[in-house]
Amino acid sequence: MRRRTLVVLAPGLWIGGPLAALAQAQGYPSRPIRYIVPVVAGGGSDMVGRTVTERWSKLLGQPIIVDNQGGGGGVIACQTTARSAPDGYTLMQGYVATHGTSPATRKLPYDPIADFSPIGMIGATPNVLVINPQVPATTLQEFVAYVRKNPGRLNYGSAGPGSLTHLTMELFKQQIDGFMVHIPYRGIAPAFTDLIGGQTQAMFPGLAAALPHIRSERVRPLAVTGTARHPLVKELPTLIESGFPGFDAQQWYGVVGPASIAAPIVKRLNDTLAEVLAAPDMREKLSVEAIEPMPMTAERFGQYIRADIARWTAIAHERNIQLDA
């Protein structure tokens, strides 16, 4: 009797996991979803999360509760997410720092690939090359020539070591075979203060942070990153069209969850997220942070993350940028 009972139960035990996951997915979501934003409340990243989840929750039929977990450059939020049950009820707003530049420059207590399920991209904002107006260059080509003729005479600022503003300029220096001295700051605001004051001569900030200074003509913009010109600064060429192939580095935002979320749940989340981003007014809402919606499949988003980490890891190794050393 024992053997017959085991024989009957064994198939049920073997398929119980997939069947349970399928049943769970069919009823998903049946309760509120926690959406972890890896920064303190307020600021651009938080705005993105709240703007998207407000519309997303209506499509899913359940509240999405934003949980701000700042600290450690996103490490705390990433660990919380990675350790959560893979049932689709804990999501996180991953972005270029948590799943791009930090893995390239630091030893982290999480694996940005293996510990997460890609859900979908939200959007991105380009970085923009700006210079102090006293620099004798009005075009990207003139600036490149000036840097090459004056190695070490120019300083460039960044929001901090290993930040996107730092690595983007190092990528630029690599591609033009030029040298400028890096001056790291504790945030983009003080970096702009010194750029405007002439203590530094160039920077690669995000477009949203740069726009007020561009419009007041306190800095001179030369080009933007990304694959296409940005609608807020249509007159600025991209670096790609200016002869820098593959220079599409951007400040991006997306959604991830803990590893091993069931595929049907991932698809439901991705489909509804894409619907949110397709709404006519969503582009306008996100334009406050100069973000262009970039919906893509979960698979494509996973490829994007891997490519971004590979890009910044290569430049960090080549330029000897290791913040744990």
Can you characterise this structure?
With 325 residues, the chain is an alpha/beta fold. The protein has two domains: 32-124 and 251-318, Bordetella uptake gene, domain 1 (D-Maltodextrin-Binding Protein, domain 2, 3-Layer(aba) Sandwich), CATH 3.40.190; 128-233, 3-Layer(aba) Sandwich (D-Maltodextrin-Binding Protein, domain 2), CATH 3.40.190.10. It has eleven helices and eleven strands. It has helices spanning 2-26, 44-60, 75-82, 97-105, 140-149, 164-176, 188-197, 207-215, 263-278, 282-286, 298-318, and strands spanning 33-37, 64-68, 90-95, 116-126, 128-131, 155-158, 181-184, 202-203, 220-224, 250-258, 292-293. It has a six-stranded mixed β-sheet, with helices on both faces. It has a three-stranded antiparallel β-sheet with strand order 8-5-9, with helices on one face. α6 (164-176) links the parallel β6 and β7. α4 (97-105) packs parallel to α11. The longest helix is centred in the N-terminal third of the chain and has 25 residues, at 2-26.
Mean model confidence by pLDDT: 92
Please, how many domains? Answer: 2
Q: Give the beta-strand count.
A: 11
Our Rg estimate from Cα atoms comes to 22 Å
User: Which class do the helix and strand fractions yield?
Assistant: alpha/beta
Return the CATH topology of the largest domain. Answer: D-Maltodextrin-Binding Protein, domain 2
CATH class of the largest domain: Alpha Beta
- N- to C-terminal separation? 64 Å
Which strand order do you get reading across the main beta sheet? 2-1-3-10-4-11
- Helix % is 40-55%
Instruction: Tell me which CATH architecture of the largest domain applies here.
Output: 3-Layer(aba) Sandwich
Low-confidence stretches: 1-16
- Principal-axes geometry comes out as globular
CATH superfamily of the largest domain: Bordetella uptake gene, domain 1
N-to-C order of helices and strands: HEHEHEHEEHEHEHEHEEHHEH
